[in-house]
Design a protein that fits this description.
Order of helices and strands: EHEHEHEHHHEHEHEEEEHEH
Distance between the termini: 47 Å
Strand content: 15-25%
Shape: globular
Low-confidence stretches: none
Largest sheet: 6 strands, parallel
CATH superfamily of the largest domain: NAD(P)-binding Rossmann-like Domain
CATH topology of the largest domain: Rossmann fold
Number of strands: 11
Length: 281
């Protein structure tokens, strides 16, 4: 029987744990505040920002929302980030991506104080992860580790294959699985014999950005499959990078879309916000 990994339930559990932590921190006069900056009104970004605000409210973290016009200049955005960096009452800064084309995302990410980089995208955060030092970890990969651990799935010694090498998911995912003593292969669009490589995996993490690309031909019987993708199909229904109906019957465990990895990203963002209090205290 395939185990359906319930990201909604696990993220709710993490948020409840964080809520309790925040309640105790407030007793010690430690307050938390996350500043969220959105430039323009991309509909998907607006949904994400709304979900982040709701999560903050539930856990007891104050949130500041900066909804800036599409035509905001790069310098205006940098000025706002520098001001938030200096503010003692703000311990997390998040700039919602993607940004409009006239703004250099890399420069914006680098402008955020690493001790307030709750998204874990700053080069200093990524460098700390590479060499095993403490720092913020990008939220989606951190959420996947929690999904595996809290579902009783052993990582140590397992063959782990990640399909996708993005800075936000693929690369940090490989480092986190290594940290958990997995044996890691990162595959991508230039990988030869991708099906054979994927089929070696005990744990297969798919972040390719192509709807239903991964069929059972890529999956070893009894593997754990983590689907990071999210798309709308021809009927406007949400689907992932994995052809769920084809793959689920041969897995030992699989994440659904929606309700798998997605909710974990926000739960781990909240976790980073709580951690930021220790970095900024």
């Amino acid at each position: 029987m395939t185990q359906i990994i319930d990201g909604k339930a696990i993220s709710a559990q993490i948020k409840d744990e964080l809520k309790e932590k925040v309640t105790n921190m407030k007793k010690d006069d430690i307050t938390l505040c996350l500043a969220v900056i959105q430039v323009g009104n991309d509909p998907a970004s607006s949904v994400y920002v709304g979900n982040k605000k709701k999560a903050c409210e539930y856990i007891g973290i104050e949130s500041l929302a900066y909804e800036l016009d599409e035509n905001t200049t790069q310098d205006e955005l940098l000025d706002l980030i520098h001001e938030l960096n200096k503010r003692k009452d703000v311990n997390g800064i998040l700039v919602q991506l993607p940004l409009p084309k006239h703004i250099d995302e890399d420069m914006i990410i680098r402008a955020i104080d690493p001790s307030k980089d709750v998204d874990g995208f700053h080069p200093q955060s990524v460098g700390a992860l590479c060499i095993g030092q403490k720092g913020f970890v990008s939220c989606t990969p951190a959420g996947i580790i929690q999904l595996l651990k809290r579902s009783g799935i052993e990582i140590a010694g397992k063959e782990c294959v990640i399909i996708g090498r993005s800075n936000i998911v693929g690369k940090p995912m490989s480092l986190l699985l290594l940290r958990e003593n997995g044996t890691v292969t990162v595959a991508h669009s230039k990988t030869e014999n991708l099906k054979e490589v994927a089929k070696r995996a005990d744990i297969l993490v798919v972040a390719v950005g192509r709807p239903k690309m991964i069929t059972r031909e890529y999956v070893k019987e009894g593997a754990v499959v983590i689907d990071v993708g999210i798309h709308r199909n021809e009927n406007n229904k949400l689907c992932g990078d994995v052809d769920y109906d084809d793959v689920a019957p041969i897995c030992s465990a699989i994440t659904p879309v929606p309700g798998g990895v997605g909710p974990m990203t926000i739960a781990m963002l909240m976790n980073n916000c709580v951690e930021s209090a220790h970095l900024n205290s």
